[in-house]
Amino acid sequence: MPKYLSKQTGFMYWAYLAVLVAGFIYCLISAPVFAAICALLFCGLFVAAKKETRRDKEHLRRLAGEREGESICEFARDFDTREIDTWIVRAVYEQLQQHLNHVHPAFPVRAADRLKEDLHFDDDDLDMDIAGEVEQRTARSLDDSSANPYFGKVVTASDLVMFFQAQSIKPARTAL
C-alpha cells in the first residue's frame, strides 16, 4: 500500500505569513495601543489553547497506556475483511495513528473510538486532512460523497472505514 505523500509548503503560505507579520508591524507603528491590546489578547488565547492541548494530550496518553500492546490486528478484527477492503482498514488506522503520533508513536486506535470525543479530532482534521490522505492511499474517490449513506454520520473510526468502503474507486489513469 502506498504511503501518504504530503505536499510541500507552498509560496502562498509564506506570502500569507509575511503579509500578517507586515500588518502587525504596521499596526505596531501606527497604533501602538491597539497593537498592544491585540498582542495581549493573542497571548491570552495562546495560553488558553496551550492548556487545552495539554489536557487533550494527557487524556490521549492515558488512553494509549490502557491499550498498551494493541495493534492494527485488534482494529482489523472488528471488520469482515471478506467484505471490507483491507487497504481501507489499514489506511484509516495508519492515518489516524499518524495524526496521534505526537502523543504516542504507535497509538492503538480501536474501531469503536469516537473520533471527536475519544481521539479529539475536529471536523477540519477529518474533512481536510484525514479524508484526503485516506483517499490518496486507497484510490477511493471523495467525489459525490454526499450520496454516501455514511455522509454526515461518521462518528467512530469504524464509521470512517465504512464511509470509504461505500465510496467509488477512482478510475485508473491511462498513459497516452
Percent in strands:
under 5%
Q: What's the structural domain tally?
A: 2
Q: Summarize the helix and strand pattern as letters.
A: HHHHHH
* Basic shape: globular
Give the N-to-C terminal Cα separation: 25 Å
Question: Which structural class is indicated by helix and strand composition?
Answer: mainly alpha
Helix content: 55-70%
The average pLDDT score comes to: 88
Low-confidence stretches: none
Number of distinct beta strands: 0
User: Measured on Cα atoms, how large is the radius of gyration?
Assistant: 21 Å
Put simply, the count of helices is 6
How many strands, what sense, and barrel or not for the largest sheet? none
Q: How do the helices and strands line up, and which of them pair or pack?
A:
Elements: H1 11-30, H2 32-66, H3 72-76, H4 86-99, H5 123-138, H6 157-165
Helix pairs in contact: 1-2, 4-5, 4-6
